[in-house]
Design brief:
Elements lengths: L1 H15 L3 H13 L1 H23 L10 H24 L17 H16 L2 H13 L7 H26 L2 H7 L3 H25 L1
């Protein structure tokens, strides 16, 4: 129980820290509504699930310093640079209005598009690989059997999905939208700069290693 509380707390506080996934969910909820944003939430959860499975099964590509891990980092840097540039370019251009047709069946294309972008965001975020590899390392020991790992993996997957859905529901709510309008341009610029800074920092770290 003590180990579970430690890992669950670390994982939850990591979710509270805004990153590319958080800003993707928030912006999708603002522009397309929380129902479409739930696609991004599902995609992010799937992407996290891939890293969770890989970490707990001990895949070599997630070992720090390996060729596969470096490849994930470089691909993630490219995606962060692209996403950061996109946020900076369109900062202030979004009109915050609650979408009138957000729940119609014809918007399934938008849902799947958001799900695809969410999956890419999670898979190409180099922090996810390192984070879950670190948590998996904390579980090494005789008590870490297959059932225990499955429980931890299912817990983390569920928490990621529920947290992102909560973010999408709150940010996409009309009451929140009206109060969010003034700070959105600054949030988008800040998010863009943070993503670019993170990508550059990772590149410098890889170069210096």
């Amino acid at each position: 129980m003590e180990q579970f509380l430690i890992i669950a707390t670390v994982h939850f506080f990591a979710l509270l820290s805004p990153g590319p996934d958080f800003f993707l969910v928030a912006r999708t909820a603002i522009t397309s509504g929380w129902r479409t944003a739930s696609g991004a939430c599902a995609g992010i959860a799937v992407g996290n699930g891939v890293f969770i499975v890989a970490a707990f099964t001990g895949m070599a590509m997630l070992r720090e310093g390996s060729a596969g891990f470096i490849a994930v980092q470089l691909a993630g840097c490219g995606f962060l640079l692209y996403l950061g540039t996109l946020f900076l370019r369109h900062a202030g251009s979004t009109t915050l209005q609650a979408p009138a047709t957000e729940s119609r069946a014809g918007d399934t294309h938008g849902w799947w598009k958001a799900a695809g972008l969410g999956t890419l965001s999670a898979l190409l975020n180099p922090k996810n690989a390192l984070f879950y590899a670190t948590l998996a390392a904390m579980l090494n020991g005789p008590q870490a059997n297959a059932a225990t790992k499955f429980f931890y993996g299912a817990w983390m997957f569920g928490i990621v999905l529920l947290w992102d859905l909560l973010v999408a529901a709150l940010v996409g709510h009309p009451w929140v939208l009206r109060r969010f309008a003034r700070v959105l341009p600054w949030l988008e610029r800040t998010a863009g700069l943070l993503m670019i800074a993170l990508a550059l920092w990772i590149v410098v770290s890889l170069w210096a290693a």
